[in-house]
Amino acid sequence: MMRVSTYSFFQSGERSMMDRQRDLLETQAQISSGKRINSPADDPVGAAEATSTRAALSQFDQFKSNQDRASYLLNLGESALGQLVDSTQQIKEKLIAAGNGSYSNAELKALATDLQGVLAQMVGVANSSDGAGGYLFAGSREGAAPFSQSGLAVSFNGDSTQMQLEVSTNRLQQVKFAGDDVFQKVRPGNGTFTTTGAAGNVGSGIIDPGTVIDPSQLTGSSYTINFSVTAGATTYQVVRASDSAVVASGNYTAPATIAFDGQQVSIQGAPANGDAFQSTPAGYQSMFDTVAAAVQLLSKGATTDAEKAQLQTTLSGLGASVDQVLDHVTLKRAEFGSALSELDGYSQLNDDRQLQYQTRLSSVEDLDLAQASSELSRRQITYQAAIQSYSAISKLSLFNYLD
User: Fold this and answer.
1) DSSP 8-state secondary structure symbol assigned to residue 332
2) Distance (Å, rounded) from C-alpha 344 to C-alpha 350?
3) For the segment 243-258, what is each residue's pLDDT rounded down to a tens digit?
């Protein structure tokens, strides 16, 4: 037969009462916090899942911060290119005005002065601030303005680094565009080749910027159109520079369209004997250099018929180059708009995912108050019963029955 001592009764009662008290306090703490899990001990598996979910939510908060910064920078860039479009349109208008044959040299010089002002505006746009001590178009070199101007010469001091921010899981969004790509990599002329008159031309011949009629026949070579005048008859030969081959020839009657190797040009006026025009593949040219060339041309003016013809030829080519600048800037501006649109999509996606994770976290650790209130009442009753039981057991002693 097992004998239970009075001490064992007391110890068992104390343990029962303390356990019921701990259960009651745990339920009260849950109701007070509104959380089912207040420490890992409450639910080790649930606590681990809640920690993982909180880490994901913290990442979404960082994504949101990056998205706001990206949106700010992209809007600044889009606005800057909008100003550049306006400046380019001003240049085009002034070049069209300069093509008016009735303009005097003084009026041409006045237009040149205006273009100098526009050039300074464009450099200012290229040096736009990012609002945080850096520049929009400097790449990774934030310590100094990306472009510097000395007279009509504009130099790029930045680099080609594409600045990016992580705006969603495994998604980097470009937020700054390198200045050399935006301002310097523009193809002049018609975008494929440029046309010019030889410096020694003495006739009144004028060549247009030309067009591409068959891209598959383009050779990438330069060409010279040579004119010869004999006994009042004018003829021409088109010589390809790469192999000195004559690729086209004929009699010239103004105006004339001359086609060769997938391209064609139009010439008007009266070229003199020995006059020549060139067609050269279009490499990259800074838009600042295009404006500077226009300033130099208009500042020089024209007096003789030959000078006026050269002026018209060069103005025609510059006008085509400015059209290329406008197309280039418009395309870059569209890239900013596309990036902003894409950013909006990622913002909505992140908001949806954040809501999913918040719902998941709530289901793991939030407390069912109705159930908890019922559990609190039950544990209060259990605790009271434990106290009463202990009180009754504590009075059981043999000495109570001795006189």
Assistant:
1) H
2) 10
3) 999 999 999 999 999 9
How much of the chain is helix, strand and coil, in % rounded to 5?
55, 20, 25
- The average pLDDT across 373-395 equals 60
Residue 305 pLDDT exceeds 60: yes
Cα–Cα nearest to 146, from 159, 161, 164:
159
Q: Which residue has the higher pLDDT, 157 or 397?
A: 157
Give the residue carrying structure tokens 């237009």.
Answer: 111
| Rounded Cα–Cα distance for residues 189 and 196 (Å) | 10
Spatial separation of the C-alpha atoms in residues 265 and 277, rounded to whole Å:
10
Please provide residue 28's backbone torsions phi and psi, each rounded to the nearest 5 degrees: -60, -40
Distance CA 144, CA 134 (A): 8
Q: How many secondary structure helices (H) and strands (E) does the chain include?
A: 7, 13
CB 149 within 8 A of CB 295: no
Q: Is the pLDDT of residue 39 over 60?
A: no
Q: Quickly tell me which residue has 């009662």 as its tokens.
A: 13
Distance of CA 44 to the CA centre of its chain: 45
Contact between residue 382 and residue 20 where contact means Cβ atoms under 8 Å apart: yes
Check residues 69 and 400 and name the one with the higher pLDDT. 69
Stretch 299-315: mean pLDDT, rounded?
A: 94
Q: Please report the domains of the chain, with CATH numbers, ordered by start residue.
A: 43-188+283-366 (1.20.1330.10), 192-281 (no CATH)
- pLDDT over 80 (residue 331): yes
In degrees to the nearest 10, what's the CA dihedral of 78, 83, 85, 89?
Answer: 170
Three-state secondary-structure class, residue 176? strand
Kindly state the tokens that stand for 24: 């009651």
DSSP string computed for 160-216 = ---EEEEEETTEEEEEE--HIIIII-B--TTSSEEEEE-TT--S--EE---EES-GG
pLDDT tens-digit map of 185-226? 999 999 999 999 999 999 999 999 999 999 999 999 999 999
Of 296, 299, 297, 327, nearest to 312 by C-alpha is 297
Is 183:248 a contact under the CB 8 Å cutoff? Answer: no
Q: Which residue has the tokens 């600048």?
A: 325
Question: What is the model's pTM?
Answer: 0.77
At 193, phi and psi to the nearest 5? Answer: -150, 165
Residue 283, classified by CB atoms within 10 Å of its CB into exposed (0-12), middle (13-18) or buried (19+), is: exposed
Amino acid residing at 188: P
